[in-house]
Amino acid sequence: MNGKPIAVVTGGAGFIGSHMVDLLLDRGFCVRVIDDLSGGREANLAHHAQNSDLACHWKDIRTLAPGDPIFSDCRYVFHFAGIGDIVPSIERPIEYMDINVQGTVRTLECARAAKVKKFVYAASSSCYGLAATPTREDHPIAPQYPYALSKYQGEQAVFHWGNVYRLPVNSICIFNAYGLRVRTTGAYGAVFGVFFRQKLAGKPYTVVGDGSQSRDFIYATDVAEAFLAAAETDIVGERFNVGAGAPKSINQLVSLLGGDVVYVPKRPGEPDCTWADITKISTLLDWRPKVPFEEGAPRMMQQIHLWKDAPLWDPESIAKATKTWFEFLGGDAARI
């Protein structure tokens, strides 16, 4: 491919993965996307439709095997493919372990056979559980639900392949990513999608608890920059937290959007605050977030029409959708 460096992006049609594709193409890479479109959308890559440096392979990562030509002559692998959401993971744990753990192992084996120069894994801050803040990379691990466990076990496999097979690996532990192309369908979850759809419909925002809980929102383009930095460094075998390092409360988001509010019960196993200590990545990789929340949220608001077909949630539908959450994570289960 024109002598350009080659990168593989699994989940490249997804939310963060598609921003990774944007960055890599902009930096002169040829990019090969692997995505089964269960969560990603071809539309996320439509602006690259005529770009000969992009090749898309619509396949499940669980079908990958060493020697797959998608990985031939590849320099970097960025592994975003997987399934998210809390409630479905409680209901279908086998599927989550299969895709997020075994799918990761298959991707690792392809990368190992291709002798790639770096494998960068998309980890989740949910592995820390109800964490002390600001949260450092050496914080104890305490997954509260199967999704978090599956992402952590995927990360453990990545580091194991680094230790045993000397595959150069790093892991980026993503806190609360937001931005354009964030998923609008599927299970009840991401606050931006929920609130934007409610705003379009003129309905009140369903705020969990009293809205004082805060999240370390990090814009998707900043996340992509962190992944590239983790690939290009000589450092290997490390986890790097990626957040803005500046938590914003849900009430602040509501104030920014403007509108009425209705409150729904606080959910067990959810932290009151997520807050990434980004000292490590800032020091070792010279990475810092560039897009402040006060700029990123309005960027999304400018394209709020994209959420017109997203699910419209109200207290009753949320209660039904999160019934399993309360059933299994309430009481003693929340302390596992």
TrEMBL record:
Coiled coil: none annotated. InterPro entries: Epimerase_deHydtase (IPR001509), NAD(P)-bd_dom_sf (IPR036291). Residues 8-243 form the NAD-dependent epimerase/dehydratase domain. Belongs to the NAD(P)-dependent epimerase/dehydratase family. It holds the Pfam family Epimerase. Pathway: Bacterial outer membrane biogenesis; LPS O-antigen biosynthesis. It comes from the Bacteria. This is NAD-dependent epimerase/dehydratase family protein.
